[in-house]
Structure formats: C-alpha cells, structure tokens
Batch of 4 targets.
Target 1
Amino acid sequence: MNLRELSAQLGLSQTTVSRALNGFPEVSEETRARVRAAADLHGYRPSAAARRLATGQSGTLGLVFPGERNMLGDLLFTEFLGGCVERASQLNYDVTLGMAHGSQSEEAVYRRAVRNARVDAMILSSPLIADPRPALLRQLGMPFMIHGRTQSAEPYGFLDIDNEGAFFAAAKLLADLGHSRVALFNGETAFNFAADRERGFRRALEMRGIAVDPGLISSGAMIEASGLSQAKRLLELPKDRRPTAFVCSSIGVAIGVKRACAAQGLGIGKDIALIAHDDRIHDMGAESFDPPLTATQSSIGDAGRRIVELCVGMLREPQAPLPSEVWPVDLVVRGSTMPVG
Amino acid sequence: MNLRELSAQLGLSQTTVSRALNGFPEVSEETRARVRAAADLHGYRPSAAARRLATGQSGTLGLVFPGERNMLGDLLFTEFLGGCVERASQLNYDVTLGMAHGSQSEEAVYRRAVRNARVDAMILSSPLIADPRPALLRQLGMPFMIHGRTQSAEPYGFLDIDNEGAFFAAAKLLADLGHSRVALFNGETAFNFAADRERGFRRALEMRGIAVDPGLISSGAMIEASGLSQAKRLLELPKDRRPTAFVCSSIGVAIGVKRACAAQGLGIGKDIALIAHDDRIHDMGAESFDPPLTATQSSIGDAGRRIVELCVGMLREPQAPLPSEVWPVDLVVRGSTMPVG
DNA sequence: AAAATTATTCAAAGCGCTTTGGAAACAACA
DNA sequence: TGTTGTTTCCAAAGCGCTTTGAATAATTTT
C-alpha cells in the first residue's frame, strides 16, 4: 500500500495524506484522525527510498571502524556503537558502518560515504590531537559530530568527557593521600584524550607542589601487556624512587599493573595505590576488580546515545550553533587507594 | 552533476548513459568509453536514493545486535561485523545495524527493518536451535542468511563452521592420548553450535569406547568465570573421578580453567590437558596462551566476509538455490595437550 | 450582503534514477 | 528492390514521496 492508493481510498489528495501523517498544522484534526486510522488499518508504511529521494535526506548516520583495532578498542567502539544504534532507531534513523580495507585509506572511506550521499552526518570517534577528518568532512560538506575533541582551526560539534578533570581528580586524591611518586600509564599520545589526561594529572601534582618525574609517565596501547611491562620496569627502581601509586588509562592496564605488583609481592590498596579510568562496559568494571578499584568512570554507551541525539538535533536545525557538551567524570573511591605508607 | 546534466553534456539520452555506466551490452564500446570519461571528468556519482527508488533495492544489508550482550559475545560480534562491513563496502553495499531497546522486542526490530524496506537482506548471527527468526523473516518476505545453522522446517541459506567435526577431533585427540575422563565446558545449550559441539564430543569418546559421564559436561556463558567455577568443582572430585582433560568452548573459559588448575597446583599441558575453541580475534589467541593452547580454530572475520559474498550472490540470483557452506575447522596441536599420566 | 481572512484541501511538478517498448541506422539476405 | 536481422540509441513512463502555488470552503470583518 502506497501513498497514492491510500489517498485514493480516503478520497483525499496525496498532499493532504502526506501532511496529515507528518504532523503538518494545515490539516484538520478530524481529517488527520481519519488518515491515521486508515494508515493503521492498511498497515501503510511510507517508502524510505522515496522519502529519501524527495527530501534529499537519507535518515542515516555513519560511523567508521577505527583504523587500528585491538581488543579494548573494539569493546569500547562496540559499546559506543550500541548506544548510537539504540538511540538512532528510536529516532527513526539508521546507522551504517564504514571501514577502511586493504589499500583503501581511511580518508577514502569518508570520501566514499560522502560522495554516495548515503549518510546525513557522520560520527567520528577516537579523534587525534591533529586529526585530518574534520577538515576533510567540512570540505566535503558533510556534517559531523566528534566523540571527543581535537585541535582544529574550524568549529565542530562534539560530545566529550572531562578527561582533564578526571585525571586531575585522580592525581589530586593520590597527592592528598600523601603519595608523591605517582606514575601515569597513558594512552597513545596522538589521541586528544590522552593529552587532556596528562594535563590534568600534571596540574594536580603541581598544585600540590609535587615535581612531575617524566620517567613516571608513559604512554602506549591501553592493554594489559602495557601495564605489566611498564609497572614491572618501575617497580624495579630503588625503593626511594619507586612509585607508590599508579594511574592507568584503562582497567586492562590496571590488570597488568596488578600482575606486576603481585609478582613483587606487593598488594594493591595495601602497598600500592591504583586508580584507573573505567569506561563502563556492560555495566561492570572497576567494582569487580580485586580489590574494588578506585576509578574515574563514565558510560560510553550513554555517550553514544547522547551524541546521536545531538547529531539529529544538528541536522534538524542546521543554522543553530554546533552542539557541544562536556560531561563531568565521577571519581569513585574504592579499595585500591590508601594513604601512602 | 546528475544523470540528466551528464547526458545533456554528452548529447546522449539518459538511457544510454545509464546503460553505458552500468555495463549493459547494448551500448557500443566507443560510446561507453566516452561516457565513462565524461563521468570521471565531472565526478559524476549516481544518487543512491534515486537508484533505490527506481530499483526497489536498497543496496543495504542488515545485522542486529545480539539480544544478550557480554564481553566475548561483543568481541565475536564485532569481529564478524567488521568482516561483513569490509566485504560489503567492496561490493558497494552498506551495512546497517539494528538493536532491540527497552520494551521493543527483538522481533520488533526485524519487523521494523522489513517494513521500512531499508535492507535487501538480513544476516542472522548466533542462531538458537529453535530460533524464531527464520520463520518470521520468511513470512515477512525478507531474504536472509544465517551465520550458523538452526533447526528449521523451512529452507534457509547459511554459512557455518563444522562445530561437530571440530569437537569430534578435539575429543578424539584426547582419547587417543589416553584420556578417559574428559570434561566439556560448552556454551549455552540453546545455541545450535553448542549442540553440534556436544554431539561431536560424545561421538568421539563413544567411538573410542569411553562412556560419557554426564557430570563432566556443563554449559553456560563462555566467560572466564564459568571455566573457573566449573573446573574448580570438578577438580575437587576424588582423584579417580577427576577429569584429566578439559575441552572448552572459548579461550575465556580456558583461562578460567587454567586459574582453577593453578590454584590446585596443577599445570596445563603437564597434569591437565586443555583444548579450547578459538574464534580468531585480531589474529591472536590460543598461541599466546601459556602454554600455547591446543585449539580448534576458525576465523570469524573471514566468516563475515564470506557470508556477505553469499548474501549478495543470493540477492543477485534470487532463483538460484540458497547458498550454504560448512567450513572445516583446524585442530592445531600445541603445548596444552599431552598423554595422560 | 459583500469583502477580506483564515482554514483546508488539491493538482502538479519535481527528486534522479531504471527500464520498457520502440525507432533509426546499417548490414545482410533473398 | 524489399525483407529480415542486428546494433545502437532514445522518448517516456514509472518508482513513491514531498512541496509549491492555487483553489475552494468556512469564518470573520466591514
């Protein structure tokens, strides 16, 4: 059943039926009710393809798989994606995925998506400090939102968490507990969030008059192996230079740290203080660590849901200022932190 | 630049230009070359929306997030999805995602996708033995392919791995090494793959004249905690009834088993033999276990790539028999298995 | 009661592609 | 010469929706 048939049934024009169904004000409530009833009765569903052609809008949002894949990255991306898909389907939007493959560069993926005009907007995740994608998309005329922030001359819409504030709070807590040798195991420095976190970390220690030892700051993949090897290295330092506290960019890293400590007979929350950032995945994480982990935490699924709302809002009101939000991050104190002893 | 403008430029009809670009035979090679050159020159890209409307095909494949989410499940799904997206984009297809949310049942998600006619076919993953989706989709007239198999009266296309053969090989290896008390930690029994695996497992032991002890077979979530608790329980049995070998449905489960063994001072590959199924994720897995794990392995990313090919083939030749493939599974023997003793 | 508003409804023109049913041009055959 | 085939190309009719510009009906104003 299509629009023409339905309007013929009703003895109305396509215009009126279309407007009645789409909530335009210039159709009487009586007619609207009649149209709705008939549409329900016949199970009428407007053709997405026809609407796309007529409106020029695809009702579709695009995401692209991150170029470098790893376990945690995939988990985070999937959790984020799941949130996006959930909210998008509530808003009657589709989500389509792109991916670089083989010789095709990531840029080509974005170009392809834009050229084919298959999406109304794209959502960028894991932005680098110097990320080429905003400039590219703006040049191509494709609206976008960033999950995170980036260093960019041009304006852009974004949703980010307060990474700096989070790591400021974590480092400050440790400093207030008397720790002066605090190590930071950060994510890859090319990512904007990692820079933000390091800034917050440094600011807190400096505020407490603690000189930041560059040797205690490292960055790398946010996986168990990184935490293990880096912690091992630092724990081998002479006792008076060995860190008494660690701040980790992910729970995976914290697991590695814990293993390194265990190997030295050091107990988390007893001999060594540990804080990690916890991107809530499947509503579980830091609290099921042993001991329960003091953590800065934030739901990446919620971020996905919210960024889709912002994105759709942006598409509906193109002339409005670009949406931007920065979410505060909770520092939840659990059993992995204690005063320095 | 649209088709009309391009054909005006060329002094040809839209028909001819369209056919030239789409490789129809009734246009001379000379004209085709001219058209191609002009299209390239002007950067002409056909509008996906218009094509969709005209052909009734959306050029889109649909997948739905599994209803129950967990870490391994997400990782597997993402790996599979990544493969799908990769091949789909090579074939100029899009992949869109659906997801049940809140009150909306999984069935509603499929209905919605079909009603809106936004996808040409759907790919079903993690089929249950009694899965309602094939009947639903057939009734709705939506083509689909299953990654896995199911117990269904109606025919369906599928790509599956030989789960039965894999677990047959694993159990047979253990039997041949002299193990007679072999435990199986299977996935949820509602899933078809779990039933297949158990069948293979039993068949091998029976073939070797070993009575299968039902107490040694359990099933549950394919996560570390399951392996840990189940193995712990079995390792507490009196020595003459305690299993000497374990077959696990995932590496996660194997990790749990290893921890349970370690707690009892039992070494994998020494005191206890261990085999797990390894869905290759990120090209790593069983070989980085300690000790390297004897495993049945199969690439889930490859499966994603292939199922998209089959799906697209099915759409292109709707009257051809439904495609189906069963992939053999390699049993790779590493250090976690040894003769009983 | 006529004129001016306002509230409803409609006919028709796209959106940009595919595809049907010829037609024109040309060569090959009788 | 007339007929039959081939090749190559085209005009025009959709696909099913949105939206513009007008027309009609109902209401209010003068």
Target 2
Amino acid sequence: MLQIYNTLTKQKAPFKPLVEGQINMYVCGITVYDYCHIGHARVMVCFDVITRYLRARNWRVNYVRNITDVDDKIIKRAHENGETVEQLTERMIAAMHEDEDALGVLRPDQEPKATAHIDEILALISTLIEKGFAYPASNGDVYYRVERFAEYGKLTNQNVDELRSGSRVEVDEAKESPLDFVLWKAVKPGEVSWESPWGAGRPGWHIECSAMSKCCLGDTFDIHGGGPDLPFPHHENEIAQSEAANGCTYANHWMHAGPVRVNSEKMSKSLGNFFTIRDVLAKYDPEVVRFFLARVHYRSYIDYSEDSLKEARVMLERFYQALNGVSLPKSADESLDAGYEGAKAFELRFYEAMDDDFNTPKAISVLFEMVNELNKLKKTSESAAVALASKVLELAGILGLLQQNPDAFLKGADKEGEINAAAIEQLIEQRNAAKANKDYAQSDKIRDALAEQGVILKDSREGTSWFRES
RNA sequence: GGCGCGAUGGCAGAGUGGUCAUGCAGCGGACUGCAACUCCGUUAACGCCGGUUCGAUUCCGACUCGCGCCUCCA
C-alpha cells in the first residue's frame, strides 16, 4: 500500500488516485533565466525517482512539469545580455535538458511553457473576474482578491489577518488589499507583452500554473509537487485561483522536496551560495551526484559538500565492485528469479521501503544488504549470483542508479595530465613479469607507484584488475 | 511576530514503545608473497528536563540549539 506525505494534511496517508491505476502529476519547474543549480537537480531527481517507481509498480503516470519562460528576472537578464527573451529562454531550456539528461532524469511527459498558454491564462483570469475573485486595477494590472477566497492559507496554515499585519509587501495603491497578488501585469516600455481585454501585458507567476495544469491534467488532479520554497505563496495562490475558478479541489496530494544546504544555509539564488549542476558535473560522475541526492529522504534537507559527494562515490564503488565480473544476461529475464530464491524477499523489502513515502535511504540499505549477499554468492554459486545481481540492477534502475558498466565506472575515464589506461595496463604487465620471477620488491614498487597516482590494483585468480580510487 | 521542520554512534543516514538499520571510518580475524577486493567478528547513539507506561531514543509537555517559509528563489 503506497503511502505519501501530504503537505496539505501534514501527514502520511494512503495514496488513491482519481482514476484507478492512473496518476496525474504536476510539478512546478524552472524559471529559465540561468543555469540550474543542485537545488533544482534535487527536485528533478526526486520526481524522476517517484515517476520511475510508480511506473515500475504498474501505475500509468502522466507527469507534467512546466517551464516559466517569461517573468521579471528573465526580462531583466535578457536585457543585460543584450538578447531577446526568447533567445535567453531557449538557451537555458537547452542547458536544463543537457543537465537532466546527464543526471539520468527522464523527461516529463509534457513540458508546457507559459508563453504557449496565454489564451488559457486569459480565459482563467476572465472567469475569476466574472466570479468576483479578481479585478482590473487602475494601473492596468489585474489582481486576485485574496480575502474573497475563504479558504486562503489552508495549505500552509496561514490566516489572512496575520498575513496582513505581518505583511512585508509594499502597499500598492492600486490594490484593494496588500495581500492581493497579480494575475496580469501591465506592460512596461520595452517589455514583451500580449494583448488582453485589460490591456497589453503578461501573466503573473502563479496564474500560469493554474492554467497549464488545468489544460494538461484537468480541474482536479492527483499530485502537485515542487521545491521547498513553493508552498507559500506560490502553491497557496494556485489553490486560490484554481479552486475559485473551477469550483472544485485543485490537487489531492501536495509533495515538496527538501532544501539543499551549504554550511547549514539553504542553497539559493538570493544568497548566492549555489553550485550549478554543470559545475559539479565537471568534477563528479553524474551518477555520484544522483546518488548523493537519492541517499537522503526527499523531504529532509541535504548538506552539500565535497565530502558528501566523495562519500557517495565510495558507496557506489561498493556496488560496482560487487557487480564487476558478474556476467549478466543482455536482457531482463524473469526466469532468472529461479536462480536465487532470496531475490524476491529483497525485492519485497525494497518495495516496502519505497511504498512508505518513497523512502530511498531505506531502499538503498536493502540494496546494500543484497550486495553483501551477492559477494558471498559469487564464491559459491554462479547462477545464484547472476540472479541476485540482475535483481540489484533492476531495483537500482528504479532509482535511476547502477546503469553503467561496472568496470568502466571503477576505472573512470582518462583525464588530461593523469596516467591513462594504456600506460596502466603496461605497468601491470611489467609487474606481473616481476611477480612471476618472485621479484616482489620490484612488483611492489610498481604497485606503489600506481597507487600514488590513484590507481589501485587487485590480484585474483583471473589476473590483475585495477580501478581508480575516488 | 505568524506558520512549519529538525536534533540518532567519529561521520552520513533510516527506524522502532521492550530484539539487526545501512554505508563510510575504527578495531580483531580470514583470504593474499604482501596488498587490494571480499568475507567473518567487533566497538559505538538516540539534545536537555519533566510526564504517561511494567518499560521510551520512539508517545505527551516545557526548554535549548539549528533550519525553512512569510519579498524573487527548487
């Protein structure tokens, strides 16, 4: 039984989709004015793992993640760069796709862009005005009338009076109330804009998600997700807009990923303490980064540091050491399960962990137990080892992990300025010759020399293999 | 000020009202020419103070500390 923590109710509850077997999920995506950082990567990987798992358990998932391709920051940045909004956003969308491809994040089923849904946005605003939940103001903006929506604040337990008194928002004369937020922003000179019944302008941030989710998934859908800083005000405002306009529940389950921290502070654009995905990928294998993110529960914070990345690398090495040398069949084969009865029990425990609000750390601990068993089986039963190893690969695949050739992962790619594979192989041959002559002084000298360059040798009955240490 | 979250062994990180997390590191063995890989064994924890209970790291309350949202931010 799948249980998911719901931000709305603040507790875990059994998950039940609107339509049996079908899950409609909307996740707030990126505002594309800069390269994605590790915090973005976390949300991407988190919902990628969730989608993969749900599909592995035979749910049909329609995963929609939007792209915000027009807003203040984009306009500002495009202007600074001397390029058009479209040039900037196209560039950043391409970069985002590169980053997520590297991390093994599967593309969402739909990636709607705000600028491609202006008609739906205008229609939604019209409905809100008709129903009295929104009003065009004297300055050309259209605002949402927050106090008209009785349930405002239900997602994050805010009450309107507290919000009003604690409001840090500058009072805008055009607004009826400081809490009101903008649905349609009147155009300023030199900005991109679209025509509307209320004058030229562009959509406010919150309305696009209400419009696009309605367009892609309907008035009510199963899961709405996003990053840690979105519940208030973004998601609160989405609820206000959609439920007022559509007259029904917006999303049944709200899921929010935890923050990535640096030195105990949230990694964020405004603090300037962020590391872009491409920066990190320049130093670490993408799978190491993915493992670093997956080994902590999705709702907890993660502290970003070089040490944690290195630790993630060491943990992956244990998996690949175990997998190395097991000759797996080319394609998945159910009959393999017969080779080792214990595989099924591990699988059940893995599912049990994932069914409990996607507990990836616990699921990974099961994989480690499987590795321990695998290492033992390798010494006793080839067929059982193959069966268990293929199960490890299958389950890890649900997390998007262990998809590389083990030997290639362990050896790593040749790098400029470091000893290359051919040179290593040559030294190993020299060492083996020395060993054959029982000239251990010489053979140890070669091994030590390689170790100094980060190359570790491993002798076995089959010969000498090597890997680069992390 | 309002609304939330967290505090677990040297580190990372799950979890549970009474018995094992898991990984890294450490220690002792096995394997090895010596190592590496691997295996076996092992050390070690539940912020502080009360309460409930036969029993609490786990439930309840207070406290301390840390963090997030309340302005754009995943």
Target 3
Amino acid sequence: GHKAKRGKLSGEYEDGKKETEESILHEISTDSETEDEHKPKSNSAKRKRVSSPVEQDPNEAYFSNPYIKVLKWEWFTDSQKESRVLPIEPYLLYQGRIIDRPGDPKTPGKGSSFTARTKTPQSILERARADAENDTSSPVQQRSNRKLGQIGGGRVSAPFQTTPHSKRAALLHQTTSEHDLGQSSDLPEMPPWVQNDVKYACQRSTHADPPNAAFIAQLDKIKLARLLTGDEIGVRAYSTSIAALAAYPHKLSTGREILLLPGCDAKIANLYVEFANYGKIQEAEDAENNEELKVQKLFYNIWGVGATTARDFHKEKGWRDLDDVVEYGWQTLTRVQQIGVKYYDEFLLPIPRSEVEDIAATIHKHAVKLRDAGIQSLVVGGYRRGKEHCGDVDIILSHPDESKTLNIITDIVASLEQESWITHTLLISTKTSDRGQQTLALNSSSTHGHGFDSLDKALVVWQNPHYTPSTSNPSDPKPKNTNPHRRVDIIISPFKSGVALQFSLTSLRKS
DNA sequence: CGGCAAATACTG
DNA sequence: CAGTAT
DNA sequence: GCCG
C-alpha cells in the first residue's frame, strides 16, 4: 500500500484509487469550520454613500510643491464628515523636504533649506547632516589595509577579521578585478535612506527586481542555510543586509560601496567581491548542494512546517522525502501540515499577476455583496511590489464605516466557501472583531479609543471552481478541477490604519 | 564584547 | 509552551 | 554578522 500513497503525492489523484483519495480527504478533514447553512445576507445598501459634488481641489497649490507634509489626523476625519476634501492648511503640522548632502556642490544653499513648521523633526535632520559630514572620508583605512587571504579557498572566517582600529574591516585586495577597493571619489551617490540614516526598511521604496538581484539571490541561499540550521542570529544578519541591498538602486561596482549600507559590513562586502569575480559564492553553492539542507528545505517548504520541524523530520524521524512523511508520519501531522503536504507542489507554483487580480476581484465582489459598495480593497504583498509572479495573494479589505468590518472576515470566508472558491481555511483570526464587539457595546461612541492594532484575517486555500473538463475525456462523469490551489491571505484593516489611509488619500485627491 | 526585530494570533 | 505564520 |  505504500506505493499507492506515493501516487497521491505525485498529484495523480484522478486515476488513482478513489478510495484512497477519499480516505485522505477524510483524514484531513480540512474543510473549514464555518458552516454554510447560514448564508450571510447582503446588506442592500441601506446607507448610500453621499457623493460629493465635484469641486476644485483646494489643496492643489500645496500638492504641486515638492514639500512633504504632515497633517493632523483630524484633517482626514473632518474631510470624511463633510464628504469633501478640506483645505489642508489649518491642519498642517509640518512640511519639509530632504536636503542634499551639505558638501554637495549642487546645493550651494544653506543647510536650512527646509521649512519647519514645528520643531519636532529638526533633530533628525541635524543628525543626518552630522552623519553625512562624518562620512565624507573613506570608511576604509586605505593605508593600513591588510592583504587578506585568498577568498575562494574555502576559509570563510579567517579573512574577515576586523582591523583593530577601524570599525570597518579592510576588503580583500583583488588585483585581477575592477571590483576592488576603488578610489574614494568613484562611489555613486548614496540614496537618501542611506545618507539620512533611515531606520526602517518600510521607509524605503522597494523594487520588484533590484539591480543586484543576482547577488541577493546568492545571499538568500546562505540565509536559508542559517535558517535551516537554526542560526537565528545569522538569519537576522543576512535579512538586514539583503533588505538594504534590495533597496539599493544602483548596480554595485565596488565592494567598498557596500560598507556604506546599513547592516552590511566586511563579510557581505567580501562576499560581493567574490561574487563579482567568480559570478558565484562558494559558501552559497555549498549550502545549496548540501544534502542535509536539501532534505530539510524540502520539508521546510511544507506550509505549517518551520525550520525546527523540518530538522526534526529529517534528523529525528529519519525521513528523507515527502513520501516518507506520508507513509510514516501522516497521522502525526497537524491539520494544516496535511494540507501543506497535499498541495505541496501547487503552493510552490508562481501566481501570475492576472490571476491575482481575478482572485482579488472575486473577494471584493463578495465583500461588497455582504456589506456595501463602501468596501475598499487593496492587493499588497508581492503583487504590489510589482512582481510578475507572486507566491501568494495578500488582500486588505477595509471600510470607512468601521462597524461594517465587524465580523466581515467570517462572512467573507463563509460566502467564498459556499461558492467553492475557498477549499480550506488554514487559519482564521477574529480577535479584533471579538474585542471590538465588547468595546462597541460599552462605548457607543464609534471610532475612538481602541488600542488594538491586530487585524482580523483569514489564511485560506483558494481554487477557481470554474474549470473546463479535460478534453481527453469529455464524457467523464466526474471531471476533475485541475486549477492549481493558491494561498490567499485576506486581511481586514480598520480604515484608520495606514494602508487604508493611503489609498483613501489617493482617491480623495483624484476626486 | 555582549546583545540581538516587533507584535500578535492560532494550533496542538 | 513551542512552533508556525502573518 | 552587525552594531553600539
């Protein structure tokens, strides 16, 4: 019977024994808990949205200048109340712009080239300015460079010692390459987030395909190795450096350039030099080809299996592939892990943007049906970052009337299940609605005073139920839906929160 | 040289 | 509580 | 592995 189980995993359910498949389905019992008997009725828009008269944008002048503006939150709520775009002037807390580097010949002007309406941000810019000044000299002590050992020799730790008196370690001198310690003048201008010491990755723009993607891919391999071996510190170190590299808009030309990026130091710079010279990084290749890591990566790719469990499967249980998991461990898997195994291959398939859009549209449609047209939805994640193919679908739903988002996640999942779009619910979180109900019952005042920032969400398995029966066997009495199963995250956000606010501002300004 | 992302929720 | 996920 |  073991070989029969093999068949399940290769995805040939249809020609396999029906009995087997059913037993699997039974064992899984993954159908989401929400019963479809109570179909949520659509709230036929009792409350139509007041359409505001088309009017001149009172803030045109403000938005046409290059200054960054910070407004009081009340501007938004008041605008909402009046259903029109209020002038921002009375709400303006601060406006300013990023100044250029002090030494920059392009800006002979004074340093105080920003207009502070309040004193708050001053210190930040002062700090940035100070940093920039201190940074003008080369971070590398060129004179005292130590010649370090050959890079590709397999010794990874020895060459990377930090020179005692400089913070930055010297880079390996590679005479055969232009990817060397360059002159201090040939570095490209650092993007603002480097110069200004921007602290959070979310403040940098992200690119779908950064200029240094190939190098980043190598670092990702090392990071994965750190992950699988339980080296959490290493994971974090590589994560931060990769994040900085991914936001870096220039093609790297010298290793020294990397030292200027936050989270990047000698190790990463040396890896870059190796990459630039040989087109690959030995440590990354080794990690990728490592047999143990290959097995553990296989398990790690099961949804619901993390590094710890992947290692356990391999080293404690002694399993070596998915068949072993099914044969010897099926009953010990959690419910979501069984789902993860069942759709192992499909979850790894990339999702084309067009399909992401289709899925989002379907979800939006159901949300509108369940509430009203005030529903706003926004696809985030890989799609929003412009990726051609996405690993999953992340969609945020919101509504200006917060009461309309109450329990909506439950309703949406039920509705989509009933129409067979959602095949499984991996996880559903209703904490926010739970708490919201309590406070709402007490405070009849609607919007204010809640401190929770968690979001209702559902992580589900999605499959397009509309399929064309296989052409090979059109008379099949029970044709099979071969549309791939997708991972979809539906997130409910209070309208007030950032993402919702962002696109509400966009639409307001367009009106 | 020591410390190390943040917050939150579900599952078993 | 440990593990996993967002 | 980086940072203070």
Target 4
Amino acid sequence: MNLRQLKIFLTVCESGSMSKAAKKLYMTQPSISQTISELEQELNVKLFERMSKKLLLTYAGEVLKEYAKRISSLVEEAQSTLLDISNLKAGKLRIGASTTVGNKDKYPSPLFNEFLSYLKEFPSQF
Amino acid sequence: MNLRQLKIFLTVCESGSMSKAAKKLYMTQPSISQTISELEQELNVKLFERMSKKLLLTYAGEVLKEYAKRISSLVEEAQSTLLDISNLKAGKLRIGASTTVGNKDKYPSPLFNEFLSYLKEFPSQF
DNA sequence: GCTCGTTACGTTGATCGTAAGTATC
DNA sequence: GATACTTACGATCAACGTAACGAGC
C-alpha cells in the first residue's frame, strides 16, 4: 500500500469510474485498473463491485476510502507546511524586516509562530 | 514524498543514525542516505544537521517527523482494519456460529460491529 | 458499434546493492 | 584504522503506455 495507490483509489471513488479517474489523473485506463487490482490483491479484499456501467464500493472499499481521505489530507497538510518552511527559509531576511509576511499565504501554518521563535533561537539551522 | 521515504525517515529519527536505521530496515546504509537526500531535495529543506557521529533534526525535520508519525499511524491502522475485514471474510461461516471471534485480535477494530451489521444486510458483497 | 474494464507485453524510471571516496575520531 | 555518511554506477523491479480482448448496453 502506498500513497500513489491511495490517490488513484480515491479518484476512482470520487469519479465513480476508472475511465473518468484516468482522465483526471492524466493516465491511461488500464493503468488505473491495474493499480486497483494490485490494491485488492495486497489487501486481500474486493474494493469495488463491478456492475455494468457502475462501480459500487464494497464494505472494505468504504473503509479504505475513509482512511485514504484522512491519510491524503494529512500528507497534503505536511507538504503545505514544509513548503511554508522552505519558502520562509528563502525569504529569511525579509522576515526580520517586514510585518506583512504573515499575510503572504492564504493559509498560514499553525506552526508559523513556533517557527519564528525557533528561527530567532537557532538562526544557524537555516 | 511517499510512504517508503517517510518510514525510512522515521526510522532514522528514532535510531539517531542512518547506519542503525539501515540495520533495522534490512537495507544498506547508502540506500538510506540516498532516500534522505531525495526527501530533502523534494521538500527543499534540510532535515538533519550532519554532526560528527550524530544527526540532529532541523526544525523542518521536527515538523516532518510529527507528520510522519501521524501518517504512519493512520496507515498502520488502515492496514490492520482491512486485514480484519479480510480475515473475517475468510472466516465468514464461523462468525455466525461463534461468540469468541471478537476476542481473536488484541485490537478489535472500532468498525467491527458496523461490519457485522453490514455483513448481515449484504452477505453477497463478500 | 460504443463504452468500460481486463489482460498481455514492452519500455522507462525508481529502488537497491556494491564499490569507492571523504571526513571525523 | 574504525565508524559514519556520501557519491558513482550497475542491476532488478515497479509503473506506465500501447495493443488486443471481453462484456454489457
């Protein structure tokens, strides 16, 4: 199980079909199908009931979907926060001189203040 | 960023060195080093301060470590729950006949009861 | 016959190990 | 010289695309 598989699985869940998910992800439909099959084999459960023209989530599929949403959400938050840190590092000099830096992002990280105090204490870390 | 990188990163954090992490993960030390470098490049931050004989987490490293722990924890919970479902599927007949099935795992999934009711309603799904 | 999913197969890229290099103690 | 990390390079496996196939409308 990896993040790539979870992302593909989630996209299939949300779009309701593998072909639509393929378009969203700029992949081919066979690759999507193969990835879902891999997931099912690895977890030893059937994730979708293959109906004609419709995919129906099994119970295992529903459970995985909820986990996948929470996991993806955490991963995105992590990446966003690390990106903030990376950007702040690049704009380090400006931080000390400007009071508007806190407004430059729509979603300031909750770790922002913590970071600033850390920066003051250990400037050599950056 | 993927789960493999996070697992390796976490192991390095916990063991305090790349060579120890390599032993824990049954990998070679250069592979660990390479993976950490990849992570740092992808995220555009330095994760460790390379001291002599000691690795010190940077602020970015501390942040990633906390996220990595939460993400890994969720992933493990997901796998454990799906494994439960997989096992229950295999032991489907026994479920109906036995009252001890709920004790067979140390950590019964919180979704267990939900699953049982689902199983009764849609037995054909399994 | 069109749409959707699966299976088969070849190519490319990621992942890992081995070997060699650098630095600190 | 022993230990720990890095760099370089080659081999293996995973991931993806193309092509061909099967099923349902």
